[in-house]
Structure formats: C-alpha cells, structure tokens
C-alpha cells in the first residue's frame, strides 16, 4: 500500500483544499496540530475567515509506534459512522467534507466553538442542553440502526459494513479483562492496591463481567459510537457535538448509554476531592445526578416514541416486549457503566476528573468511590427498575461515607 | 450473470467429471434426480462402482419459480459450512469434492447408505448411535466456531463470511411471526382453529417469542447449521451424516440444539396417533425421551470438555460463568424447540411425523400435544434446571391427557 503520512503543512493544506470547497485559491492557509496525540494525527487548517479539521490515521498507534499496528480501516469506519449519524441525528456530529482512502484521511467541520465535555465537568460548568442532547443522540443513532427500524437485510449489511475487529479487540481487553486481574497494563494507585486485590478475587463480579463481555462480543443490536466517554462529547451553551466514532461497530446498545453515564459518575467521584468549596462540589454532584436522570429519561422517552411511530417489525413492537426490552436495556447500560468506572480507575487509561487530584490519598478516596459504585452497577444492574433508583443508591453511598 | 441451469443429464455428468476424480473416462454415468424438490436441484450421478451428488442452486425457489428470488450465495455458504463442519467434526458431513461459483453447484459425497432420520423416527427404528452422534455434532461444530474457541478477530471474519440475509429472513418469518397471527401462509387443521386463535391472543407467549426472535436477529454466538430438523440428519446403524447447511449463519447456539430436540418431540406427538400397537408406540415415546436426554447430555459434557481443554479466553472460561452460560443455553434451546414445534403445527411447513396421520381428529390430537408442549417450552424455558426436568414434564403431560 502506497500510504504516505502528511509530512509538511503544505501536504495538509493541499489535501484540505482538494477535499473541501471551503477555501479559495487566494486564501492563505495555516496549520496547527490539535490531536490529543494518542492514536491519530489531527490538524486544524484555517484561513482568515474559515477553518476545518484534517484527521489522518496511521497504520499503527501513534504514541507507541509501529510496534502496535492498527488497521487503517478505522478511518473509513469513522467517516461512514459520522455520515450515518449526521443522517440519523442531524447536526450533532461534525459534517464530513471529504475522505480519501489512499491517504487514510478525513476532512471535516471544525467544531472549535465547542469544548470537551470532560473539561466542562471538571470545571463544574452547568451547560443547560447537554444531557438532553446526549439522550437524543443516543435515541436517534441507536434506534435508526437497530432491528426496531431497519429491515433484517439492511441490518445485516450494516453489520458487515462496520465489522471493526482491531478496535473492538482493544475494548475487549481494556474493559473486560485487564482490570479483573493483576495485569501489567493496569495502573493502580498504591493506596488502592488491597481494594483491587479484593476485586480480583470476586468471582460473582467476574462472572457478571464475563456476561457483559459475551454480549459485547456477540450482540449486534445497533451501530454504536463505542467510545462515548466525556472526551468524545463536545459542548457549549447551545448544545453538543459528538466526535471520534472510530470504534464504531454493531454491538449492544447499553454500551453507549453506559459509557456516558459512567463518565458523569466518574466526575461525581472526582468532585468529592477536586479543588473548590465543599458546598459547590456537593451541589455539582447533585447536578450530575440530575443530568444522568435527564440522559436516561430523554433517551427512554424518545426511543419509545420512535418505536411507536416508526417500528414496522410486527413481533418486536409488541408493548409487552418493549417494556421487557427497555428494562433489559437499563440493566445492560448500568452494567457497562460499571465496567467503564472500574477500568478507568484501575485499568490502563484513567480520566482527568479523578487523575487530576494531586494528593494520592484524596485521589484514592475518589477512586474507591468509583470502584464501589462500579461493582454495584455490575452486580446489582438487574435490580434497578428505573433510573431514580440508581440516583437514590448513589446518594445513599455518598452520605454513608 | 451468465448462470446456466443444468438442462440435460450430459450437463450434470460433465460437471461431475470436471469437479471430482471419482470417475474414469471409461465409466458410463447415469443421473437420477433425488431432491425433495422444494428449493434446489439435487442429482445422483453414478457408474457401476461409484456415485456422487451434484446440487445446483437456482436464483429462485424451485417450487415457486422466479416470483420468489433467492440469493445463489446460499450454495457458497453451504459449501463453506460443509468444509468447516468437516474440519470441526470429522466425517459427520458429506465430503465436498468440488464447487463452482459460476454454475452455483457443489459436487459432494453420496451418502446413499444413510436414510433420513425423520423416516427412521416415523418407522420407530431405534438406531443406536444417532442421539450421541447429534450431541457430538452440536458440541464440535458450535464450540469451534464460538468465542470460546476462536479469537475475536477470527470470529468477526467468520460472522462476515456467513452473513446470509435471504435465508435468515425466511426463518425470521416462518419461525417467529407467521404462527403467532392469522397469517395467510399458515396451514391450520380446522379442528385446531380455536387452539390457534387462543395462542394468537397470548401476549406473554408473544413477548417470549419476540425475545427469541431478537436473539436470532442479533446474537452471533457460533456458526449454526440453522436448519437442523430431522430431515437434515441422515442415519443408519453406524452413525449419522448431517446435510444441507444452506441456512448457515452465525447465530444463537440454542437454535440448532432446539430444532433437533423439537423434531424428536414432534415425532413423540405423532406417535400418539400414528398407526401401530399402542404399547409399541408408547415404548418408542420413552425411547425418544431417552434420546433427547442423550443428545443434551452428550452435547453438555463434550462442550464442557472442549472448554476445559481448549478455551484460551480468560474471562469466558471462568467456571462460574460457564455454569451460568450452560444454564442459559438450555433455556435458549428449549425456547427455540418450542418455536419449531409451534411453527411445524400451525405454520406453513408441517412434518410428516404428524401430517401423515390421515384421520383429521387423530391428527388434531397429536397437533394439540405439539402446540401445548411448544408453549410450555417457550414460556417456562428458564424454569428447567436440567434436561431431566423436561422429560418429567413431558411424561406428566402425556399421562394427564
């Protein structure tokens, strides 16, 4: 394959000009690299009046190098997932201007007017439309790629289009295996060591994680974003943009819902020890719980509306089945939320919501809360009959500490 | 596409010669058509000393004609499924000698020394090695194509290789929809009409069938035969051969297990009213129940042995997970067995085990037994803790009539 990495700004601007109509020949273009730098290269290309993003996928993980090869097919998947999400959930993802398979690169809308939701949560911003926006994004992207909307022949074509083995394998390992044993990739706070060791002995927990893993491996319910943490959501006063669906594949719906809920709960754990006034932090924790309720309730209501109005499949639209199904979806979502909380606490990749707490003791306190919550979510997931019961349980846990 | 149906015996023999080394140029070959004639053309080609089978798939359903087109990709799928089964479960499927995509035709081993299991059951033959052979076939073909054996990247390639939308769609409709409403395709004995009408009103049953349908649509557990009724199993004193995997796709394991168990139970229902001595028929019913136990127990033991000896996946081989999983598999299997019993009783395609009972009243009696059993299997499937409990329940039902 004749793949060539962009080496100079001129490579990037030439590509940007070729694949979008945004710039005139007279525009003088500048380039800055803005990627977080882990996996891909991300460039912002701008003139005096316009800007766009160029994202290039290398045949390996950028920070590790050629020693960890990674299929470049992920950039095709990201591009096609963005286009499908744009169709199913208007204006919530950046518009794709162009794509070139040879260069493994996408040219897309610059969403610089939005900031990372993770940073907003750490700063305790109360952006008004985010939780509702996330609920709508989940309902729309998941419903329109599920059997509740697609015919079975279209659905199978979608499964085939988004088979994504390399990136699924990363999740299979970092979510469902590493954190449940003393794995060399893990990153465990020394003060949390005995908690982690206890967790590694818990066979009931491990059985339930195996069930969630089997669903992740097997259950092709809908096209997932599949990496929907709070760093993949960008937000401002007017709404959200969701980026980076390179992990997209047809999998269990609860995985997307669970990941974003977990990231709110991870922030809640962090707020117990982040800098700032106690009252302000407690107040924000309540706001986070209210946001989780809004995410689920918005999703639940909108998803059910879609079913009522658009599901043709006669056996699956039976109200008795839908009630059972939504209950199961809540349990799945909470289970996957638990796996995200645990893997972000003792696995390889932590989150700044907790990791930025500089005092190791205080950090361990927040980490312990995440770990306990994660285990409850996984083991008791089928017991929560609605999202309120989760909120009540989290409050109990916060007050009992 | 330049596809050409074989029109003359000479077309068939030329193809057979070209794609197998079985015949010498001196051999005089004869052709007989032996297919059941519903979907494909099946020919037996034979000399004085040798024989083989040629199977050709048309781009439509043979008995219906060009009005019901059907993807010819099914013959590639059948060929690849046969080869994979031959690798995973030696000598239980006919050997494939050759395949030509252009002609949509396979040349394979003649298994004329074996007879249809359905006929053997109707004649109350007690072939000694059949149930054990079926249990081994299930354990081997299902284990070696599941996540318990394959790495996740290989598994996803398998899913892609066996995406089979046209044939899955047929099953989705005839198993999981038609029999649960007053569908024009249904074939309901007039004397059973009120039983069927009652069934169509049962929302608990329909909810459970929707759950089984959703698993059939979504759950890519292992490569299924996916049409494992007793007409797909051929048997004699020395064992079995399994044929016709054109419906193969990666789906829920319980579907294969359930179908073959259901076909034993359908025969059991038939034996209540087939010709012959009462004692002989009752005795055979007990033999059928013992066979069902043998099928499950052989499968269960061998599948667990495979896991113990060959599963590398660390989270899925946890004993606590495996116990949960085998329990779930039994419930799935019984649920799918129930759908097969119901669809073979009031759906479009009946089975000779019951259909050959000429007196409509007697036939209705057997059909009613199938229908009741089918509903128990679906609604109570999670309550059966082992296969013995199923056998006890069936006996109760037989004696209480």
Automatic annotation (TrEMBL), chains A, B:
GO terms for molecular function: ATP binding; S-methyl-5-thioribose kinase activity. Gene3D superfamilies: 3.90.1200.10, Phosphorylase Kinase, domain 1 (3.30.200.20). The keyword Signal does not apply. Its EC number is 2.7.1.100. The keyword Nucleotide-binding applies. InterPro entries: Aminoglycoside_PTrfase (IPR002575), Kinase-like_dom_sf (IPR011009), Methylthioribose_kinase (IPR009212). Keywords: ATP-binding, Kinase, Nucleotide-binding, Transferase. One of its GO terms (biological process) is methionine biosynthetic process. Residues 31-263 form the Aminoglycoside phosphotransferase domain. It is an enzyme of class 2 (transferase). Signal peptide: none annotated. Pfam families: APH. Belongs to the methylthioribose kinase family. Homodimer. This is S-methyl-5-thioribose kinase. It comes from Amphritea japonica ATCC BAA-1530. The gene is mtnK.
């Amino acid at each position: 394959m004749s793949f060539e990495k962009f080496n100079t700004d001129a490579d990037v601007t030439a590509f940007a000009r070729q694949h979008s109509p945004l710039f005139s020949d007279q525009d003088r273009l500048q380039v800055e690299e803005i990627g977080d730098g882990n996996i891909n290269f991300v460039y912002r290309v701008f003139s005096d009046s316009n800007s766009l993003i160029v994202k290039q996928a290398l045949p390996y993980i950028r920070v590790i190098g050629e020693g960890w090869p990674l299929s470049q097919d992920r950039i095709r998947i990201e591009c096609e997932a963005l286009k499908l999400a744009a169709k199913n959930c208007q204006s919530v993802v950046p518009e794709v201007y162009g794509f070139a398979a040879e260069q493994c690169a996408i040219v897309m809308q610059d969403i610089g007017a939005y900031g990372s939701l993770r940073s907003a949560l750490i700063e305790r911003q109360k952006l008004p439309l985010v939780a509702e926006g996330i609920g709508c994004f989940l309902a729309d992207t998941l419903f329109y790629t599920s059997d509740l909307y697609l015919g079975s022949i279209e659905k199978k074509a979608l499964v085939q289009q988004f088979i994504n083995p390399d990136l699924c394998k990363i999740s299979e390992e970092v979510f469902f295996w590493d954190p449940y044993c003393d794995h060399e990739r893990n990153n465990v706070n020394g003060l949390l060591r005995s908690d982690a060791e206890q967790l590694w002995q818990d066979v009931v927990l491990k059985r339930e994680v195996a069930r969630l893993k089997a669903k992740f491996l097997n259950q092709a319910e809908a096209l997932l974003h599949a990496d929907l943490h709070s760093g993949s959501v960008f937000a401002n006063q007017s709404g959200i943009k969701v980026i980076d669906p390179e992990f997209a594949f047809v999998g269990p719906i609860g995985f997307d819902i669970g990941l974003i809920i977990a990231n709110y709960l991870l922030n809640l754990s962090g707020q117990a020890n982040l800098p700032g006034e106690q009252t302000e932090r407690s107040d924000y924790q309540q706001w986070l719980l209210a946001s989780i309720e809004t995410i689920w309730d918005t999703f639940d209501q909108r998803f059910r509306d879609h079913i009522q109005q658009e599901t043709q499949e006669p056996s699956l639209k039976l109200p008795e089945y839908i009630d059972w199904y939504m209950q199961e979806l809540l349990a799945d979502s909470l289970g996957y939320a638990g796996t995200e909380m645990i893997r972000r606490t003792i696995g390889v990749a932590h989150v700044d919501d907790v990791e930025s707490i500089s005092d190791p003791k205080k950090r361990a306190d927040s980490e312990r809360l995440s770990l306990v919550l994660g285990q409850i979510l996984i083991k008791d997931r089928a017991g929560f009959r609605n999202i309120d019961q989760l909120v009540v349980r989290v409050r109990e846990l916060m007050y009992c500490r």
